[in-house]
Amino acid sequence: MSILVNAQTRVICQGITGSFGAQHTRGCYLYGTRMVGGVTPGKGGTKDANGLPIFDTVERAVRETGAEATMIFVPPALAGDAILEAAWAGIPVICCITEGVPVQDMIRVRAVLDEMNGAKRRFTLIGPNCPGIITPGPKTGTGEVDGSGRLDPYTNAGCKIGIMPGYIHTHVSQAPRGKAVGIVSRSGTLTYEAVWQTSRLGFGQSTCVGIGGDPVRGLSHVDTLELFAADPETHGLLMIGEIGGTDEIEAARWIAEARKGGMKKPVAAFIAGRTAPPGRRMGHAGAIIGGADDTADAKIAALRDAGVEVALSPADMGTAMAKAMG
Amino acid sequence: MKIHEYQARELLRGAGIPVPPGRAISSAEEAAGAFAEATSGQRSPLAVVKAQVFAGGRGKAGFVKLVKSADEATQAARFMLSNRMKSPQTPPEGLEVRKLLVATAADIADRHGGGKDEFYLAITTDRKSRRNVLIASREGGVEIEEVAKRNPAAILKVPLHPLLGLQPFQARQVAFGLGLAGKLVNQAAAIMLALSRLYVEKDCTLAEINPLVISPDAAGERRVLALDAKFNFDDNATFRHPELAALADHSEDNPAEVRAAAFGLTYIALDGTIGCLVNGAGLAMATMDTIKLHGGEPANFLDVGGSATEEAVTEAFSIILADARVKGVLVNIFGGIMRCDVIAQGIVNAARGFKNRDGSTGFKVPLVVRLEGTNVEAGRALLDKARTDIPTMQAATDLADAARRVCAAVK
Q: Which of A158, A174, A326, B339 has the most CB atoms within 10 Å of its CB?
């Protein structure tokens, strides 16, 4: 089991003919993701290097392929439009990798998505400015295309939507400890670090979600923790946050409430930026210390109060998870 | 991105928000003329001369002056343009001032014979509600953070609808809430509406009028006026605002940070001795944290990003090593988009071509490299082969090992 995506999920790429779009479509295809096509306006009717059909519009792609998830690689100026096109075509999982989307665009897009969703979430936006989402499958092949053009996928039961390196992830069936953790993070490479550490300690991952480093985005830490808490195959929750905003404080509050409601899954966390100077934007548009709740120390304190095992060093994210799992 | 006060006044004026007469000058010779323009036909015989720099502490440094005559304006201008401004917020050698604002010193009316009528008005984006919000306070002219601490009830907050923006009824509500009456209500509401439109149109992250005042015009009629304004803009939106990019003044930027940006690198100078070269903002922050936990001090934040070329990596090294305080460098790469072999080749090229101040080539400081992720085997092989060219290099097995090694090496 997993959250949001699995081996059956049919995935398209918006911006499939751009250099990043093409490169990462191939990466996902080789991993074993069920890639069914892509969209580039004006290139409809052609095929990409993997033989996947290209469509002019998302609406057409959905009609022809039954796509259920999309990976967006269009330039920042067009990203808001691409997200809305996907939602209006009825794609439930929208993953926007694009970095540098204007905040005002995301305020409008998020408002429209919230209105479309109403009380029940039909559309899930992941990102923007994120590495994507992956539900690892058991490693079965080389992840290469042989001389005769036959694909030997890296896994045949996994789904990678995004730019993360697939091989660092472990399916629970191949994890010596026989347990899977769910990982949620605002950062890309720091997520890989956490995945790698948990894999090396003998854990698998049910699903890993990079929610992105922008101030206005789709999934929050709380949204993702809720999904993991409800997934029977996720045995532990690992949350990686950073300075800026109050997402992690809200997560701490949610964890404390969920515990009262009987949520027993172990939770571990790491917050990046304890040494970051206030008022300086640390790379991510969202990583800037404004108020007192924005600091790493405030977030760490709130998480500890909620009974979360907090790693102070990023080198200890895996061991903190292991400790929480007992 | 930020702009200067004189530019902010132009933005307000363009949006129909009244500001006191005044203009920017860049030589003392223009001061007398600017003084005459700022004071003619005004009730107030006074003007104010203000240095246009981003650094704070202008008043105490003598770079904001109230002047009574053209002569005084000229004197003040000559002083500010020929001396470097020094304040706790400037570099120790001070800042060169190139532009001054000469404006009417508006007369601030007493409301009921009591306190001065100075208000605070701002629009910013609230991450939690994912809305732009209008913030207003009766206590203008001071830092809003202080008001928030001392008297939170004095701050009014109104969310802007994400698609419709601020509505006139909301603006009137705020104007009444500020205690305004009569014609002043509609004047203030019009300013709020104009400011909120400006905020969205120009992709601001902060649009602040502080103070907004009530000042009698030449005929003695009380009017709402913006005395000072501050704008910050979303760097992600500069592509659609060439008009704002043209206003940018990079003279106070850290030169190393500007140089890094030209190569797609995010560099922030800090005070320590261990240079960092990392891919990804989160991992870069976490690497700094690890160094500190092992007893070291990071010299910088440097994110090479996801698509750095070998040239960018070479440039990153030269920026890091240009800081004379750097005694060791930690490279921490977890390849995703970034391929480890590209980083490794960049390291090798940088080491081979690096020129020290004494004319010798190659890295002199200890270098600890930790590689993981996409194409890691190829990256490690490249570094292994080049070992004789980089004798100060050590390979680390993981993040903790890397931090331990670099901290030990700089001790």
A: A158
